[in-house]
Amino acid sequence: MADGTSDIQTSGPQYFKWNAADPAKSLQDFRTFVEEEAQKAINWYWRAKDTKKWPSQGVQFFALVLTAAAGLVPIVLQIAKGLGLKLPDGFDSGLIASLLVGFAAALLGLDKAFGYSSGWIRYTVTATTMTKMLQEFRVDWVALSASSSATLSSEQQAALIQRARDFVSAIQLSLLQETKDWAAEFQSNLAQMEKDVKSQLDSLKEQVDKFAKEKAETARTGAIELTVTNADKTDGFRFDVVVDTKTGRFADSVANSNVWTNISTRQGQCKVTINAVAKGTPVSISTILDVKADDTIKPSLTLPIT
């Protein structure tokens, strides 16, 4: 009712007309009217609780299954590997476990956002409370009627009407309280959702900024001016240069010179390998260079030529 799925539907007149000519019958009809209106509200809550009960139980069940699976999957896969099961390269059971836990958390978040479990509890408590009120009203009505004379005096009629009025007020108060509880829960969930979304956006922005900063920092380059001291002793006076960096590999060749230059090497460590042929025999030498942004390093290498 309070969460907007539908309103409590009532049929028949929403008022009662007193017949002064027959107060006894009017009192009986008034009692019936009050009880029927209360029972309609009670019946609505008992029916509506199922719209919350089944989604709540479904969410709790699957969240439990997913959480249990997250703990069991790494163990099962470890046992399977021990039995000779070959898993794909790069397969990480930890990621699967994290994914399952993430799904479970999403289900619980869905339950909280739509108020399935809390709504189920509210509806059940409200219906039970109003049922208790109805039974107390019936008992009190009988007690008041039993203590009255055959012909009800105006004071006795007023007492019965007052009891009915108190009962109707209590029923309406229960409806109002349930609605207030729903409104407070909805506002709290909405505020928490906005807070979570903002936190996630801030975290995402921080990661993007960090990635952009790292990428910009990595993209900065320096220069290498490498001298191969005995390059003139190679066949054809030439040598090849292979540079391995964190982002990949590139190669170059130098002829008729003992100096290789590159003005756009990304900063950081890289491995430089010089390959050549001397007297028909392949020769090679490697070194690790530390390239700094906006700086030029000038290493020198000597090929192992005998």
Explain how this protein is built.
The chain is of the alpha/beta class and 306 residues long. The chain folds into two domains: 194 residues; 81 residues, Immunoglobulins (Immunoglobulin-like). Helices cover 58% and strands 19% of the residues. It has four helices and eight strands. Strands 1, 4, 7 and 8 form a four-stranded mixed sheet that branches. β5 and β6 form a beta hairpin. α1 packs antiparallel against α3. The longest helix is centred in the middle third of the chain and has 66 residues. The relative contact order is 0.09.
Radius of gyration: 42 Å
Strand content range: 15-25%
Q: How many helices in DSSP terms?
A: 4
Straight-line distance between termini: 95 Å
Uncertain spans? 9-13
User: How would you spell out the order of helices and strands?
Assistant: HHHHEEEEEEEE
User: Averaging pLDDT over every residue, what do you get?
Assistant: 86
Task: Write a compact overview of the structure shown.
With 306 residues, the chain is α/β, with parallel strands linked by helices. It has four helices and eight strands.
List its traits.
four-stranded antiparallel beta sheet, alpha/beta, four-stranded mixed beta sheet, Immunoglobulin-like, 306 residues, 2 domains, 58% helix
